[in-house]
């Protein structure tokens, strides 16, 4: 019986679970016959390790989809952690965000602090773009998906025709934070995702699956930058993150959500 209430839980398929913390950050647990893989560790709120152990006693491999604070905060609770090396340079910048994050969250973020400590960061292993993790019965293929950050990756599960995408392509795409790449990099990643073999994908801040065909709408959204009027957005958690938001649809009927893109102010065309 699951007595840990720190996280919401949704079963996506046999042996595949999506988790969500109280700040709507998500992670995905994939359980094979020999190992389990945890894709992201969210913000570090709650007893993530204890929650995972109620679902499986297998050894757990952690893959960080990228180096932003809301995907690596629970790293300190695990031993085997991987991150694309192109995002290692983000980790000191994320360490510098902790005090402001604690003010805006109105609580200490002790696990995030520990996960970003020099001792813990030194334990993170570099992740190659074409890595494959055999969990026993399920193979997880790592796919480079740059744009949101230089080192953003996805995890492709061909047996389930499912892609774990982190923040690589989302309805409200953010390209205005530390590490975010120029718009053409994201557009190239969207095209790459369209050519991959999967039917549905999971994201880093939504507790549900998305159909692959919605990627065409995400691409359409990139094409309105500079053509429609942008609106200034200040990130609630870290005020120095400011961008211009461009809205494609205020409520897409297929996913029942806003589709927009936020780019850095200096990148916006007048």
Automatic annotation (TrEMBL):
Domain Metallo-beta-lactamase: 25-205
Native organism taxonomy: Bacteria, Bacillati, Bacillota, Clostridia, Lachnospirales
Organism in which the protein naturally occurs: Agathobacter ruminis
InterPro entries reported for this sequence: Metallo-B-lactamas, NDM-1-like, RibonucZ/Hydroxyglut_hydro
Pfam families: Lactamase_B
Name of the featured protein: Metallo-beta-lactamase domain-containing protein
Domain of life: Bacteria
């Amino acid at each position: 019986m699951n007595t840990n209430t720190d996280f919401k839980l949704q079963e996506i398929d046999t042996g595949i679970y999506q988790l969500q913390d109280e700040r709507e950050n998500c992670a995905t647990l994939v359980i094979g016959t020999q190992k389990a893989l945890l894709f992201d560790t969210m913000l570090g709120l709650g007893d993530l390790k204890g929650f995972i152990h109620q679902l499986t006693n297998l050894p757990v491999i952690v893959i960080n989809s990228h180096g932003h604070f809301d995907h690596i905060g629970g790293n300190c609770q695990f031993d085997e952690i991987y991150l694309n090396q192109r995002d290692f340079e983000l980790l000191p910048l994320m360490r510098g965000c902790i005090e402001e994050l604690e003010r805006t969250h109105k609580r200490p973020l002790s696990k995030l602090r520990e996960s970003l400590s020099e001792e813990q960061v030194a334990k993170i292993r570099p992740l190659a773009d074409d890595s494959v993790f055999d969990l026993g019965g399920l193979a997880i293929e790592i796919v480079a998906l740059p744009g949101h950050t230089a080192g953003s990756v996805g995890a492709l599960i061909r047996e389930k025709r499912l892609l774990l995408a982190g923040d690589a392509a989302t309805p409200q795409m953010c390209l205005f934070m530390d590490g975010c790449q120029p718009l053409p990099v994201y557009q190239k990643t969207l095209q790459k995702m369209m050519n991959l073999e999967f039917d549905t994908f999971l994201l880093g801040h939504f507790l549900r699956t998305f159909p692959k065909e919605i990627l065409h709408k995400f691409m359409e959204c990139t094409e309105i930058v500079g053509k429609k009027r942008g609106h200034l957005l200040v990130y609630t958690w870290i005020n120095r993150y400011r961008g211009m938001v461009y809205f494609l649809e205020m409520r897409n009927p297929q996913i029942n959500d806003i589709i927009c893109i936020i780019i850095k102010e200096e990148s916006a065309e007048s």
